[in-house]
Automatic annotation (TrEMBL):
PROSITE patterns: PEPTIDASE_M14
Pfam families: Peptidase_M14
Protein name per Swiss-Prot or TrEMBL: M14 family zinc carboxypeptidase
InterPro entries per UniProt: Peptidase_M14 (IPR000834)
Length: 458
């Protein structure tokens, strides 16, 4: 399907349970209330129809899905976007293991705001293929960035006036080598506690400094029997995630991104669930691990999700035409991205408010030593061992001088504060990072960084 036809196909809108599902750059007007934002969104049944300015296409589009865009081609494409549109800002936020730039693209109208302005306002961030051998997310990001930078639709321009849209390309070394891992053979998506890789450090820094309200993490998966929809989506499952952030994330998956994918003619399911005759019967993935970005996002009080496009054919038509499968995978990513844009366009104020309030709730719970700290289990599964949960939370942790020296820079990236004392430093639970602290510092945490001393009295 050619580029213009694909945009037209993605341009349908479906109203589901009172929620408008957009399908191409159309977005909500500046909101005086959540109701007015939804009404404006529902009125936008005509999405982007004008061809991109200057006919700018990705190599993937130009080849009709035969050739994935390379690292160098993407760099040139993004530089062209930056030079050709006042709405676009391209900046380097780090370097990969092999020294390639880690690019953050921000888009706003009439021009992108500064990092300080964005942090105090509204932002949605797309993580564009953290695994180097999963190219469709990158392609979807490149196409959507182009479309947002060139659309003349006034409604989308109103969205960009209120919300900054960011795209980060996290693994250029794996992209170049066509490997899941980075150049040090590390899966970056298992590094969001240790933050040992420069790539995870860069993304954690963006999350800390730009303060996004929504994050959509784009991946691919290998379909098989009972696990063969064209797309899979999932919210954070870690039990320490604030309940409101968890529920907003699940709502985004069910009512926006998954529904948008289906509205555009593709099948969608929940990541990690095997399904037979329409009924899930076994969970095989999608667990609680805080070191995975999907869960880390929720623990940072950000409404977030995972999107997985089926890698390879899942229908007879795709079996007969591999390029159709490639194009469909990109359509999945684009559709999911549009769904999450609809989520923020209709719920911008609530998302920002709940993110801030989740941080306040975590700080208060830490001060009160309230609730339960979970080291295992997930939202649909309780821990099965005594070490899996702590019903009498500690007030903080004592670090030795050696532990503080080793972890100080990592704690700063996580936005976790400490107070030095004669033994080293105390990390109090009375701070927004309360949801992360035990997972980083407790000996019961499977992927913890050290074995600090829990304190009952601070």
């Amino acid at each position: 399907m050619g580029h213009q036809k694909r945009l037209t196909a993605v341009g349908c809108v479906l109203a589901l349970a009172g929620t408008a599902l957009l399908a191409g750059p159309t977005a909500a007007a500046p909101e005086t209330s959540e109701t007015s934002a939804t009404a404006d969104s529902q009125a936008l049944e005509r999405s982007l129809t004008a061809a991109p300015s200057q006919g700018l296409q990705t190599p993937f589009e130009a080849s009709n899905g035969a050739n994935w865009t390379t690292v160098d081609e993407a760099q040139a494409f993004l530089e062209d976007l930056d030079a050709g549109s006042k709405r676009v800002a391209l900046q380097q936020v780090g370097e990969s293991v092999e020294g390639r730039p880690l690019n953050l693209v921000t888009i706003g109208s009439p021009a992108p705001e500064s990092q300080e302005e964005v942090a105090d306002g509204s932002m949605i961030l797309f993580n564009c293929s953290i695994h180097g051998d999963e190219p469709s997310g990158r392609e979807g990001c490149l196409q959507l960035a182009r479309d947002l930078s060139t659309t003349k639709d006034p409604a989308w321009k109103r969205l960009l006036n209120k919300t900054t849209v960011g795209f980060i390309f996290t693994n250029p070394d794996g992209w170049e080598a066509d490997t899941r891992e980075n150049a040090d053979d590390v899966d970056i998506n298992r590094d969001f506690l240790a933050l040992a890789t420069p790539e995870a450090q860069a993304l954690a820094t963006v999350m800390r400094d730009w303060n996004p309200d929504v994050l959509n993490d784009l991946h691919e998966y290998g379909p098989r029997e009972f696990y063969d929809t064209q797309a899979l989506v999932l919210w954070p499952r870690n039990r320490n995630v604030d309940s409101t952030i968890h529920d907003l994330s699940e709502r985004m998956v069910n009512d926006y991104t998954g529904a948008q994918i289906e509205a555009n003619g593709m099948t969608s399911g929940i990541y990690g669930l095997l399904v037979k005759d329409g009924e899930p019967f076994q969970q095989v993935a999608g667990d609680h691990q805080a070191r995975i970005l999907r869960n880390y996002t929720g623990l940072k009080h950000i409404t977030g999700q995972l999107t997985e496009a089926a890698q390879g054919p899942v229908t007879p038509e795709e079996e007969n035409d591999p390029l159709l499968a490639n194009r469909r995978a990109v359509d999945v990513q684009y559709s999911s991205a549009v769904g999450s844009l609809a989520m923020i366009s209709e719920n911008r104020t609530r998302l920002a408010r709940q993110s801030a309030q989740a941080a306040e709730r975590a700080t208060q719970a830490g001060a009160d030593q309230a609730g339960v700290v979970y080291f295992s289990g997930q939202d649909n599964m309780l821990p099965t061992t005594s070490d899996g949960a702590e019903p009498h939370p500690m007030c903080g942790y004592q670090l030795t001088e050696a532990q503080l020296s080793e972890l100080a820079s990592t704690l700063e990236l996580h936005e976790i504060a400490w107070e030095e004392n004669a033994e080293g430093a105390v990390v109090t639970m009375a701070q927004p990072g309360k949801t992360l602290i035990p997972l980083l510092l407790d000996e019961r945490s499977e992927y913890g960084l050290t074995e600090a001393t829990p304190l009952d009295d601070c």
